[in-house]
Design goal:
Belongs to the PlsX family. This protein is an alpha/beta fold and about 375 residues long. The protein contains eleven helices and 13 strands. The two termini are about 35 Å apart.
Length: about 375
């Protein structure tokens, strides 16, 4: 167990089986980490159920932020702006300094939207990505995007390659990470229109940490890990692949000794630590998500990734919540993108907000978070 007190804001109402599995998962995480502090965001009666299960001596390690509304799993991410809901309140707690990281098994679109609005995006990042680490035969493989944004352009995939390479270097200590683009074959020209456009774009993309692009890879390369340390794809394909691997493990009688497919992912591209759990999370999945969030804070992963990007490909300010870069896709440039653009599309609030506003939508407007689901 890594040392150091850490405060995690937990969305009590996020997930298909919330709040029961969230309460049980939080209890498991709490019992495994004596330095863990929890900020329970949700109905008071649900929080009190968890607190009542603790020893009296441990109850001062738990605080409550009463919130009753939740963003539905199939709801509109824009509802984040219109209501005082659990994920919005959890992000606000980190912004205010009452917590160090956020964990939610709720609607991914709502969580990403809340994070973008609350923390702001890193310079040059229009669409944040969800990053998962899978145990492969030859070592861990970083897979992104696994659901942060369901639609992607070639420029988005190239940007996510930058994020994934930095994450692999910081989180897993990979020297000169090998980056591959997921497709249906390894020969140049394989894949759909987006993949065919993204392949040469990634070949020209400057990557941090001495990373290099190795070309197209296939699904089995994710399982073996012998061709790439980082595999880039769109959020739709990545999410399907991740759940397919889960199903394969179940059919095989369980995951390999190195661990199974993760049911929690790190959100990269915002200036704060956010972990998104599987919507169908069980209590052990929620506990793992909380442990991941604690690890991110203790290792200062998000600020470290941001600093690596700033040193290698991003110019502009590097300050903000949790030590990450400030809001505003217009605040800096990544690998030649124009200020406020993702290599081909304007960033900023829908309806044409000013350049550099980033997550800061004006009254009555919803920021363009890049979320499509």
């Amino acid at each position: 167990m890594e040392p150091g007190t850490v405060r995690i804001a937990v969305d009590l109402l996020g997930g298909d089986e919330a709040p029961a599995v969230v309460v049980d998962g939080a209890l498991r995480a709490f019992g495994a980490d004596p330095d863990l502090r929890l900020l329970l965001v949700g109905p008071v009666e649900v929080a009190n159920e968890l607190i009542a299960a603790l020893r009296p001596a441990d109850r001062d390690r738990v605080a409550v932020r009463p919130v009753r509304d939740v963003v539905a799993m199939n709801g509109d991410p824009a509802a984040i702006v219109r209501s005082d809901n659990t994920i919005k309140a959890a992000v606000a707690a980190v912004v205010e300094g009452a917590a160090d990281a956020v964990v939610s098994a709720g609607a991914t679109g709502g969580t990403v939207t809340a994070a973008v609005l609350g923390f702001g995006r890193w310079p040059g990042v229009r669409r944040p990505a969800l990053v998962a680490t899978l145990p492969a035969v030859d070592g861990p493989v970083v897979l992104l995007d696994v659901g942060g944004s369901l639609e992607a352009r070639a420029a988005t995939l190239a940007r996510h390659a930058v994020l994934g390479a930095a994450y692999a270097a910081v989180t897993h200590g990979v020297t000169a990470p090998r980056v591959g683009l997921l497709s249906i074959g390894t020969e140049p020209g394989k894949g759909d229109r987006i993949r065919r456009a993204a392949d040469p774009a990634l070949a020209e993309q400057a990557l941090p940490a001495g990373a290099r692009y190795v070309g197209l890879v296939e699904g089995y390369d994710v399982a073996f890990g012998n061709r790439a340390d980082v595999v880039v794809t769109d959020g739709f394909t990545g999410n399907v692949l991740l759940k397919g691997i889960e199903g394969a493990y179940a059919m095989a009688g369980g995951p390999p000794a190195g661990g199974g497919a993760p049911r929690a992912a790190t959100l990269l591209g915002v200036a704060g630590a956010v972990v998104v759990c599987h919507g169908a999370a069980r209590d052990d999945d929620v506990a793992s998500g909380i442990a991941l969030a604690a690890h991110l804070h203790r290792r200062r992963t998000i600020p470290a990734v941001a600093a690596l990007l700033a040193e290698s490909t991003v110019t502009g300010p590097v300050t903000g919540t949790g030590g990450g870069p400030v809001t505003g896709t217009g605040a800096g440039r990544v690998a030649g993108a124009e200020p406020g653009q993702d290599g081909g599309g304007a960033a900023g609030p829908v309806g044409g907000a000013e350049e550099g506003r980033g997550s800061g939508a004006g009254p009555g407007r919803v920021a363009d978070t890049g979320v499509t689901a």
